[in-house]
Fold this protein.
Amino acid sequence: MSIYLDYNSTALVRPQVQAIMAEVLAEGGNPNAVHALGRRARSRIETARAQVAALVGADPTAVVFSSGGTEANAQGIASAIAAGCERLIVSATEHPCVAEAAMASGIPVEVLPVDGNGVVDLDWLAGALQRPGRAAVAIHHANNESGVIQPIAEAAALVRAAGGWLHVDAIQSAGKIAVDMRALDADTLTVGAQAGRGAGIRRAGRARGADPGAHPARRRAGAGPARGHREHGGHRRVRRRGGDRGWRA
Ligand SMILES: Cc1ncc(COP(=O)(O)O)c(C=O)c1O
C-alpha cells in the first residue's frame, strides 16, 4: 500500500470534481458562442467564477483565471508595476516563482527577512516602506514547505499606510484555512488548487477583459468546486482595486 504525502505540491482530484470535469468535457461548446451549447459552457465558467470568488470573499467580476500559480503571481507583480510601483519587497521565503518574477521585473528588489520561526520581520518592513519610491510587497499567506502562516493583515496595514501595493500568494492557504481578501487587505491575491488549472480574482472591478478568447470551460468548471477542497486543481488571483482590463489595468 502506498500513502501519498505530497498534497502541498499537487493534490489528487476528488471524484466530485472529476465528475464535473467529465460532464463539461462531454458537453463541449465555445463559451463565447450564443448558441445553447455555448451558453451552457459560459454558465459553467460563471458558476466556477462565483465559487472561486466566494472562497475568498471577493466579487466574481474580480476573478481572473490563469494557467497556474506561477502565472498568477507573475501577473500580480506586473499589476503592481503597471500601477506605478517602483520597487519590490519580496519575503525571503516566497515560492521561487515569485522571487523569479521579481528578479525579472527590471525594478529594484529587496528581500524581506524572516525570523527564526519563518515569520516576516514587520519592523524591517516598516523601515523599508519609509524609503523613497512606491513599493510593492509580496508575502505568501502560508508557506508550502513549513506551513508557517504570515501576519498578512498587519503587513497590509503597514503597506497601506505607506501607499504601497500588497500581493499575497494564498495558494497554500485557500481551501485549508479561512482566506478573506478584505480582511487580508491585499491588492492582488493568488489562490490555487494545485493541479495546474488556474484563475485570478480582483477585489473590485471587472476582470473579464483579462480572460478573452474561447475559455477552456472544462478546466474552469473544475476549478470552482475544487476551491473548497485542496484535493483539486485550480489557481486564481484576486485584485483589490483596478480597472476592467485584467491584472494590468
Ligand atoms: C505557495 C506557492 N506559490 C506558487 C506555486 C506555483 O504554482 P504552480 O505550480 O501552479 O505554477 C506553488 C506550487 O506549489 C506554491 O506552493
